[in-house]
Design brief:
The chain has 199 residues and is mainly beta. The protein has helices spanning 42-51, 167-172, and strands spanning 13-15, 19-21, 26-31, 55-62, 71-78, 82-83, 86-87, 102-108, 111-116, 122-127, 132-135, 140-145, 152-159, 176-181, 184-189. The longest helix has 10 residues, at 42-51. The chain binds fructose -6-phosphate (F6R) and zinc ion (ZN).
Length: 199
Amino acid sequence: MPEETLRPFTFDIIRAENVILNTYDNHIKRSLSAMRNQYHDEKAYEALLNQQDYMLYEVYEVKRPEIAGELLQGISIVHPGKVGDEFFMTKGHFHSELDTAEVYYCLQGEGLMVMETPEGEWAVEKLIPEKVLYVPPRWAHRSVNTSRNEDLVTFFVYPGNAGHDYGSIEKQGFRKLVVEREGEVQVIDNPRWLPPEAR
Ligand code: F6R
Ligand code: ZN
């Protein structure tokens, strides 16, 4: 790592029509095809994918060494839309280093953070502009955009050594799903989810 990157540095969050960072090192894009088996309505998923491999979310990362003591930062942008009745969302993950937390600061849009522990305790918190969310150690987290037409944009900070564990979420999803039914945002049980002792 060049010497100058070890000195304090700043960057700007530009709140233009699309929120963006003025400097970033990595731009991750996840489209529908990367989310196979993650939405509860498989037919709706296939039908939408047949139309187009829609872009669901993007992450702009500021790179730092992935070691304890460092902090990783960036912005996450979940686009609006639904697969069947289920809102566009991130994959969601536990941190591989389970005892690491994360802070989210909502910049734009509206959504929900769906969270759960390995034991199956769950929580859902609303994300609206200027809301800060603390995700404690051990809680898996997924951002869901519940707006009809606006991006959900959050700034995040988490420990450099956290790592990402997508495994168990990929298998059966989160305990709770966020859907639109009768014109309302509803948090419902995921029929595929099993408690730890039944897996
Ligand atoms: C990092 C973190 C966020 C997410 C991002 C995309 O620990 O929680 O930066 O990585 O919102 O979500 P995933 O990684 O679940 O695809
Ligand atoms: Zn995380």
